[in-house]
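Forwarding these from the shared drive since the link keeps breaking.
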Amino acid sequence: MKITLKLFATLTEYLPPESKYTNIEALEVTEGTTVGMLIEQKHLPPKWVHLVLVNGRYIDPDKRTNQTLVEGDVLAIWPPIAGG
């Protein structure tokens, strides 16, 4: 099934070269793939996975291992961001 992955800020380093300027990667994943599984498959450091949204809806850290992705989902992930 097809989903869209969006990574922001320092996490763009984990996208393929052709996706780094758009922050978007189209992915083919198997049915039953969870947010947590995809984070592991992309080798995203857990400490850098801060804000996670599926179709614009926030996913709590304790629910990411059970949140199953479905056809057409958009998974967006931001690292912690500091500012002043």
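-- next protein --
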Amino acid sequence: MRRIHPAWRVAGATFVVLLVAAAIRATAGVLIVPFEREFGWSRATISAAISVNLLLYGLMGPFCAAIADRIGVRRTMAIAMSILAGALLLASAIKSPWHLVLLWGVLVGMGTGMAALVLGAVVVTRWFSARRGLVMGALTASTATGQLLFLPLLARVVETDGWRSAVRIVALAALATVALAILLVRESPAALGVAPYGATVIAAPPARSGNPARVAVLTLFRAARSEDFWLLALTFFICGASTNGLIGTHLIPACVDHGIPEVRAAGLLATMGIFDMFGTTLSGWLSDRWDNRRLLFTYYGLRGLSLMFLPQALIGGSGLLVFAVFYGLDWIATVPPTVRLATESFGKEDGPIVFGWVVAAHQVGAGVAALGAGFIRTELGDYQAAFFAAGALCLVAALLALAVGRIKLAPWRTAQSQT
């Protein structure tokens, strides 16, 4: 019987860690209305804390890749999930907005940033020579699976036992993944005496020297000289604004505004998760075979149209399932093509760190949208303007994606040789 390559075991453990981290990030969506009812805080106040969370989640990405190079993927996962478990347990006792900003905004933001897709990109780059797009698609889909498994449960728990019980559930899930990472994750194929999946040569990953923060910042300075970096960062900024920041944070409150119960609204996000799991995995498979620029053009264009349809779907209610399917297939299908374009443009060694900075742009967009949509709802009484603005931005991102990699002279190569 042919032995299963250990890369699949590491990828499986990483999938679970990313799944739980994604579930923790998504939990904010079911907490907005309970916080509003219990504490009397406005949507803008609550959204400010969530915005800090999303921003730090993104800013931790490039440093996470550098830290993983320095102390190891396994330790990085264990530390991240331990931070999340502690912060969530403390968050169950919050009393004032600054508690929410410190615990949910700062600590949960940092913890989820350390256990994010950037870490998945490091694992894929180290452990796989073949099937990279497929595996990255599956790891990306873990965020959808996290919503699928946890959101309806958490919404039901909030309804029956209160929001504190829901927070404690995800805290316990975070603790369980600490043990999983320690038991199953190894640093590289060379540590086990095997070649990466699809390769024949055993080679240890290049050792990083210097402070991880300095490595991450210097990589940013080099990448910033490339037009491709700015194109990827800007399109991913729009990606974050139109997903985590807007829909991930505000769809459930928007549904409640239109008389749709929280549990049903959470089920809607879970439905998106089901279709995104298939859509993103398929996107990874396609990214190994098709032009990644055209894939991004298609994804952003379809997302823009679906967001412009959402206000009408909310008014009638009957079109929400259509929106969930249409939008869900495209939720984070942009990640595998973006990872592949970053690796092609900046190389295997620096690609994960550059992708980390691109993810940082993603979360800056998410933070801006989370806060902006909260203010729009507070000032105008609904989210319609926020949905239309995000849809228009997605159409802009579709056009920008076509320009990635079109310049023959890559400034990155010149800059890299000078450092």
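Confidence is low (pLDDT under 50) at residues 408-419. The CA atoms of residues 94 and 155 lie 19 Å apart.

- D.
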